[in-house]
Design a protein that fits this description.
59% helix
C-alpha cells in the first residue's frame, strides 16, 4: 500500500499565510463582483456543507450512512476542494480527536486554549498530530481504497484545477472570492467547532470532555456545532437532536434517503439518548 501522507505542519503554515494574504485582495474595489460573491457562497456550501460536513465527517469518518460508491467518490472530491487536506489524513486526525478528546493525545486539544484549537494546532509543533503510520492504522477502510489514496496524493492539484477553471470563467474576481475568501472562511468556521464548541455552550450529555452544543457555531458549520451531541453519539448521522437544534447536513441526508441514495443511516436509540442525559429529559 503506497500513499504519500503529509504530517509536517510547516507546509500547512506557509499555505495558511498565502491564503490569508490572498484574501486581502478582496479589499481592492476592482476585484469585487457580485458574481464572485455568489460563486464563493455556492462553493462554500458545496465544499463545506456537502464535502466536509456530510462527506469527510459523517460519511467517511463516522460511517453514519452509506451511499452508492459513485456518489461517495463524488462527495469525497468535493471535500478535497474544501482545501483541508486529503480524505485519509482528515479522517485519521478526526478519529484521533475522538479517541483522545480534550486530552494530551487530541490534535486540537480544547484545554490548550482557543488559539491552539482554532488554528495553531495545524502549523505549530504538535506531538498529537498522527504520524504517517498512525494515519494508516486509523484509516484501514480508506487507505485500502485506491481512489481515496489517489485523492490523498493529488489533493493540491484539484485546487489548482478549480482555480484555473474559475479564472477562465470569471477572471480574478472569481479566483479571489471563490478560492481565497471561501477557503479562509471555511477553515475558520471549521476551527470554531474545535475551539468555541469545546468551551462555550451547553452540555446535554455526559461525554467526559469539554464538547458543547453551540447554536451559532452550528449555523455556520451546517449543523456540526451541536458538538456535545456529536461526542455523545459519534456515529449518529444527526447532530441536532432536539427539535430546535437545526442541522442542515441532517436535512441533506434525509433528502438523500428519501430519493434512495442513502441507506443504513445511523441514529441513537431512545434508550441510549436517555442514558447519557446530564439533566433530566430532553424537551
Amino acid at each position: 500500500m503506497s500513499v504519500r501522507i503529509p504530517t509536517d505542519g510547516k507546509g500547512t503554515g506557509i499555505g495558511l499565510i498565502i491564503l490569508h494574504l490572498g484574501t486581502l485582495l478582496a479589499l481592492i474595489p476592482a476585484t469585487f463582483t457580485w458574481s464572485g460573491v455568489v460563486v464563493a457562497i455556492v462553493l462554500c456550501n458545496l465544499t463545506g456543507g456537502v464535502g466536509l460536513s456530510l462527506g469527510y465527517h459523517r460519511m467517511l469518518t463516522h460511517q453514519s450512512l452509506r451511499v452508492p460508491r459513485w456518489l461517495a467518490y463524488t462527495i469525497a472530491v468535493i471535500g478535497v476542494l474544501g482545501m483541508e487536506g486529503g480524505p485519509i489524513t482528515w479522517v485519521a486526525t478526526h478519529r484521533r480527536h475522538h479517541a483522545h478528546s480534550d486530552s494530551a493525545g487530541d490534535p486540537h486539544n480544547g484545554r490548550r486554549g482557543l488559539g491552539w484549537s482554532q488554528l495553531e494546532w495545524l502549523y505549530l509543533p504538535n506531538d498529537a498530530r498522527p504520524t504517517a503510520d498512525e494515519i494508516l492504522h486509523l484509516t484501514p477502510d480508506l487507505a485500502s481504497d485506491p481512489f481515496y489514496r489517489f485523492l490523498e496524493r493529488t489533493n493540491i492539484y484539484w485546487q489548482i484545477g478549480l482555480g484555473a477553471l474559475l479564472l477562465a470563467l470569471g477572471g480574478w474576481s472569481w479566483v479571489i472570492w471563490g478560492m481565497f475568501v471561501r477557503v479562509v472562511f471555511t477553515i475558520h468556521v471549521t476551527g470554531l467547532v474545535n475551539s468555541v464548541a469545546h468551551n462555550f455552550g451547553y452540555q446535554t450529555y455526559r461525554t467526559g470532555d469539554q464538547s458543547r452544543n453551540n447554536w451559532w457555531v452550528a449555523m455556520l458549520t451546517w449543523g456540526d456545532g451541536w458538538h456535545n451531541n456529536h461526542h455523545a453519539f459519534p456515529a449518529s448521522a444527526r447532530h441536532g437532536l432536539r427539535w430546535f437544534e437545526l442541522d442542515p447536513t441532517w436535512l441533506a441526508i434525509c433528502l438523500l434517503r428519501r430519493i434512495g441514495l442513502a441507506r443504513d443511516v445511523r441514529l441513537p436509540t431512545l434508550a441510549a439518548l436517555a442514558r447519557g442525559l446530564v439533566n433530566g429529559p430532553i424537551p
